[in-house]
Amino acid sequence: MDNETKEVIARAELPLLFRNIRNALGLSQEKMSELSGISRVQISYYETADTVPTMATFYKWQSAVIKEIQRLRKNKWGANADKKEGQEEVKQPQDKASTTSPVSPK
Questions:
Q1: Is 51 exposed, middle or buried (0-12, 13-18, 19+ CB in 10 A)?
Q2: Cα angle 22, 27, 33; round to 5
Q3: Are 29 and 44 a contacting pair, CB within 8 Å?
Q4: Is the Cβ–Cβ distance between 6 and 52 less than 8 Å?
Q5: Assuming Cys at both sites, which of 28, 45, 71, 73 could form a disulfide with 81, CB separation 3.0 to 4.6 Å?
Q6: 8 A C-beta contact, residue 64 and residue 71
């Protein structure tokens, strides 16, 4: 794919990506600006395809999105929300059968 084609795709896809993810997280442009360090005006430009962000700016935006998702997960599921899949703490049920020996001492 040539650079011109990549730019056309970026100009079509990125504005939707920026706006839809921000909206899904329930963030205003102002709040996204605070979280990412990107000006509200620039966020507006990215969401309307007036400007394509640099990679550095995209990484700032991405970092803010990840942090917001982590914050939301913690609020919903508690402190264990950041553990990776498959690493959840599994608590075994404590009942009499599991705490006593199957063989009685003689």
A1: middle
A2: 85
A3: yes
A4: no
A5: 73
A6: no
pTM value surpassing 0.85: no
Average of pLDDT values for 90-102? Answer: 43
In angstroms, the Cα distances linking 96 to 91, 99, 101, 102 are 16, 5, 10, 11
- What distance in Å separates the CA atoms of residue 25 and residue 45, rounded to the nearest whole number? 19
**Which 8-state DSSP code applies to residue 48?**
T
Domain 3-78, architecture per CATH: Orthogonal Bundle (1.10)
Note the Cα 3 to chain centre separation in Å.
29
Residue 90 has pLDDT above 50, yes or no: no
Q: Give dist(CA 7, CA 69) in Å, integer.
A: 28
User: What percent of the chain has pLDDT above 70?
Assistant: 73
